[in-house]
Amino acid sequence: MRAAVLVFPGSNCDRDVAVALRAAGAQVEMVWHKETELPGGTDLVALPGGFSYGDYLRCGAIAAQSPICGAVARHAERGGYALGICNGFQVLTEMRLLPGALMRNAGITFLCRTEGLIVGTAESDFTSGYSAGQEIALPVAHHDGNYAASEAELDRLEGEGRVAFTYAENPNGSARDIAGVLSENRRVLGLMPHPERAVDPAHGGTDGQAVFRSLVGALADA
Q1: Does the model's pTM come out above 0.90?
Q2: Which of 69, 75, 86, 115 is catalytic?
Q3: Cβ count near 161 (within 10 Å)
Q4: Could you confirm whether 194 is annotated as catalytic?
Q5: What is the dihedral of CA 202, 207, 209, 214, to 10 degrees?
């Protein structure tokens, strides 16, 4: 499986995501935001966490207009996989590859701690390594992680089984405790928690491994 990890000015989790993907067996190439095409044969595009462009304007809004994101949109339209973590999730919503928006945390504070999550579905290549309803723990680190969408969109996400993760105890005010969502074809995942920070026992937990191993395994079998 070939993965491209995007790098924007202000990205700070790009190397972490690359390490997690390589540990799961992927071939990884780092791709600078000014590139206009993805490397040939790219299966997965990973949009990492951080503070792209300093989070000026809106989180992810400027990054969504960068040259490489045109290629990401074309990749997704062809049925390619994309994973957006934290700031990457914000970018995917700004690109309209995922519904909703990430707003300022309800408590108006930056959150940096481990949170309990509940797996909403195992019916995706990102989450097949978990069981629906399984409780896991992943770190969060965000100021704008409050997921918002219309009631109709929220009903649709839940009805189609596209809520990938919810918070066990809502830390940021997200609608219906949502921590991560899937696209209609289930090949684009955005989530605010950081699975790449929970892939090694030295991190204090390995609950994030399944995200990367599931996807790499699914693509290897394709």
Answers
A1: yes
A2: 86
A3: 15
A4: yes
A5: 170
